[in-house]
Specification:
six-stranded antiparallel β-sheet; alpha/beta; 614 residues; binds 5-amino-5-deoxy-1-O-phosphono-D-mannitol; eight-stranded antiparallel β-sheet; Rossmann fold; Glutamine Phosphoribosylpyrophosphate, subunit 1, domain 1
Length: 614
Amino acid sequence: MCGIVGYIGDKNAYEIVINGLRRLEYRGYDSSGIALYNSELNVCKTKGKVEKLVKKAKKNISLEANIGIGHTRWATHGEPNNVNAHPLISNNGSLVIVHNGIIENYATIKNELIDKGYNFKSETDTEVLVNLIEYVQETENVKLGKAVQLALSQVVGAYAIAVFDKKKPDEIVVARLGSPLAIGIGESEMFIGSDVTPFLDFTRKVIYLDEGQVGVLRNHKETKFYEISNDSIISPNIETLELELSEIEKGGFDHFMLKEIHEQPKAIIDTLRGRLKLNKGIIKLSGIDNNLNKFTSANKITIIGCGTSWHAGLVGEYIFEKISRIPVEVEYASEFRYRDPIINPNDIVIAISQSGETADTLAAMKLAKEKGAFVFGICNVVGSSITRESNSGTYTHAGPEIGVASTKAFTTQITVLYLMALKIGKAKGIISNNVFNKYLAELNLIPEKIEKSLSFNNKIEEIADQIKDSTNCLYLGRGFNFPVALEGALKLKEISYIHAEGYPAAEMKHGPIALIDENMPTVVIATAKGHYEKVVSNIREIQSRKGKIIAIITEGDKDVKEIADYYIEIPETIESLTPLLTTIPLQLLSYHIAVKLGKNVDQPRNLAKSVTVE
Ligand code: M6R
């Protein structure tokens, strides 16, 4: 995810673009950059955040300009550094572009352009796009708007772009497909943003560019919009903004946590993109591809992490053992680092972390490396310390997670673990092509099944109302859903401050059952193929002690539906994939309880998003 900003008009473009970038920084902060034109093109970019860019720009470029574009980057193609930072300039030095999205066929286009004599400084797909536009502009002898349109019709992928030509600095051309782009309309001035926050201070008039549309934005002259596919001119709707800035920053959701819960279908699509290739029946995961022998010959995998990432690791244990038949141990990073763990040759340590900065996980990785382990990182934040410390690894592509309670990080971590286990299981010959393909097909359907699970939000809110005043809560699950019970309990604890415990359902009778009474609700995950009858027996044991049951069940269930006090359905899938679905109602339940109790959902007391101290 990246943020793009642009301005053309009579005001100082630098101030507007920089403030816009500050507001879009939640979209990524691997690098930032700005391009301004005032008799010459001035480009300044830097690895890191907008404030670093401000310092660099003040020292190095003229800040006087009436046209400018800017970018804050969450790296996809190419490591985050000054060269890969946007804006990117075309070979003839005339076109400058910012881009949010991924050009999937960039490698093919790049090779064609190289054959035509083009050269590339960065590893980005965006530099390919700006050169393709330049090539079309020169060979077809067309204006920039037309060149953008023709170039984009050759492109496969997602984009929101803003591009201008220093030879004709009275227009900015924008286009979008799959990535958002908003245009603010002022008096003789135009604003561009990935969302409306960059221009909320200046105008309330906005056009949300539609999929597959191009706009040629001019300050004092007529602005033009048309379809990329067929040239037809369009008159877009001009809407009036009524929202407050703070609301829009959360994408219209009341809290970042709720927004992030709802982002999970997209986050998983992003995690699977370019990796799960359904039609080819393959998984591409370069971190594994490059080290496949190590994984197929591994004697043992130790997964380390903290909090939610540790819970994802526990799901990973079940997945790896089932699909790739490798023994797995899951360790709290904080314990691992202070034990004297036994690491043998051929052992692999997988470190899981959303932030990539968790001190305990980082220290545990260093210890594992000292002991000779091959350390593989699963991380969300590009270029973070844990990614640098890993021998190899893979990103989750969940996008920035701002709410302190981790949600989309958890489901994308599990998604990556499935991809890894499936790839290794197939390479080892543990699973047949048929089983492998069935998993791929089901995994591919998970985003829409999560969407369906999210549609029960209102019902979950009503259940939250019924149990919000409890002081204790028990979460039970078995097999693949035992770690989900732990995660459900953690979510409730950290944002509502209600004491909650997660247990394997069968362990209840060894102690926790003593707590059951009419004041203690129990959330039970009772999926159709997850030791169903045994979990039903647990439910009956709780009910005979007057305990209230909130059951997470599979669509089509009859028995638990009849006996539970409340139930929430999830769509059917392969049992080992159910954690990706059963997690959703538990996140929503905690969220609604915390909101009803008036807690600070996004910034719960005593917690921080990234725990960089012991
Ligand atoms: O960034 P990490 O995944 O390494 O963070 C680990 C934990 O601090 C984190 O999961 C924490 O438990 C969350 N607040 C849970 O919602």
